[in-house]
Write a structure and sequence with these properties.
- By secondary structure, the protein is of the alpha/beta class.
- The chain is 29% helix and 21% strand.
- The protein has twelve helices and 13 strands.
- The strands form two sheets. A nine-stranded parallel sheet has the order 1-3-2-4-9-8-5-6-7, with helices on both faces.
- Helix 9 packs parallel to helix 10.
- The radius of gyration is 21 Å and the shape is globular.
């Protein structure tokens, strides 16, 4: 089914010999793939498309160069079957490329294989999102970007407005969106107003850098993750036309990717925006490869970690709010030290579930102990209402 959308990458990635200690020795290439993908955990897919970029044309050439660096990195510390499915070439039109990517993502989701998409321009997130249209559930989207791509002054989808198009796409499968590491001076007030009106989440760069662990819970309830290399400062990642003097450090981008990989709910990951025309000594290509490597490392270290009834691996904490005679329940994993909080379901929507467990942080628990309502709790309540 997928053959009509995919072409093998350059032969050198398949014919070259990798040391046993290198990731390339762990990756199955098209000629090595089994008849079924039942045992495959991750599929790497390049997308050679950048016609949706307003200022970063050139990123279509990035997928194979990122592969070159990725497969030379260290082998993962646990066995996990990874398949390289090759590249989606640019279609007759940009819309054709989105459709092809949507089909590939949808098939991977159906097979319970995590697609790792190497772009290409950031608007390809629209095609990545399209892969969820037929899965029968609402999803949560997390975007790491220096901007909130909501500009609505043009009809055609591009890398400056695709997020707004995701918000209104039909059929809608969107439950929540979080934009992480945006820079306030690059974002219009209208974009922030829309995010707030829809009860979506946004984490500005300063907030992320103050305590990067506070955004880990966001990835824990995400399904689709989309990373734009423009979120990284120019000194660490020059290969993007919109690269800024400010931004995440390279190691912070890798940490966020590992958070995404560790999440049991993340089932597609895309990395976009590497423009070879602006790279210096392959610095951004190397960073992109490392970001993907840390996502893979997160996946192999998933713990199937979620509170379930009276599981002895979790401790329940109940916080009493004396003033309004309310109580809030928290759960802590003894395996990972991660936290969840119970958010009550509005009575009008109750069937079998009286509450939902929402990933949170220790800071949220501390706030509740001071009888302060965590912002994460209020956002979740607004979405449920």
């Amino acid at each position: 089914m997928l053959e009509e959308f995919l072409r093998s990458a350059d032969d050198e990635f398949y014919e070259g010999e990798y040391a046993e200690s290198q990731l390339g020795s762990q990756v199955l290439h098209p000629s090595q793939l089994p008849d079924t993908m039942e045992d495959i955990a991750i599929a790497i897919v390049g997308v050679k498309e950048d016609r949706g970029s307003k200022n970063n044309v050139g990123s279509a050439a990035a997928p194979d160069e990122i592969r070159r660096q990725l497969y030379m990195l260290s082998k993962l510390n646990r066995e996990m079957k990874i398949a390289d499915l090759g590249n989606i070439e640019g279609g007759a039109s940009l819309k054709d490329t989105y459709v092809a990517l949507s089909h590939v993502v949808n098939e991977m989701l159906r097979l319970q294989v995590v697609p790792v998409i190497i772009g290409g321009s950031h608007d390809l997130t629209f095609g990545q999102y399209g892969g969820y249209h037929e899965i029968g559930k609402d999803i949560n989207v997390s975007v790491v970007d220096s901007m909130i791509d909501f500009y609505d002054g043009e009809e055609e989808i591009n890398d400056e407005n695709f997020l707004g198009r995701v918000f209104v796409a039909e059929p809608s499968v969107l439950h929540n969106t979080a934009v992480i590491a945006y820079q306030t001076h690059l974002v219009t007030p209208k974009s922030l107003e829309v995010m707030d009106k829809l009860h979506f989440e946004n984490y500005r760069l300063g907030r992320v850098r103050a305590d990067i662990n506070e955004v880990e819970p966001v990835f824990r309830y995400s399904n689709l993750c989309s990373f734009d290399l423009s979120a990284v400062r120019f000194a660490d990642s020059p290969a993007n036309y919109t690269a800024s003097p400010n931004g995440l450090f390279g190691e912070e981008m890798c940490q966020l990717a590992r958070f995404a990989g560790q999440s049991d709910s993340v089932d597609s990951f895309g990395l976009y925006g590497c423009n070879l025309a602006y790279d210096s000594r392959d610095q951004t290509v190397k960073l992109a490869a490392q970001v993907i490597w840390y996502f893979l490392d997160g996946v192999v270290n998933r713990r199937n970690d979620f509170p379930n009834g009276q599981d002895e691996n979790y401790t329940k904490y109940t916080v009493q709010f004396k003033e309004n005679k309310y109580e809030m329940n928290f759960w802590k994993s003894r395996k990972s030290d991660r936290w969840w909080m119970e958010v009550p379901t509005p009575e009008a929507r109750r069937n079998q579930k009286k509450s939902h467990l929402v990933p949170c942080s220790y800071t949220d628990y501390q706030m509740a102990c001071r009888e302060e309502i965590p912002e994460r709790w209020m956002k979740a309540m607004s979405k449920l209402g």
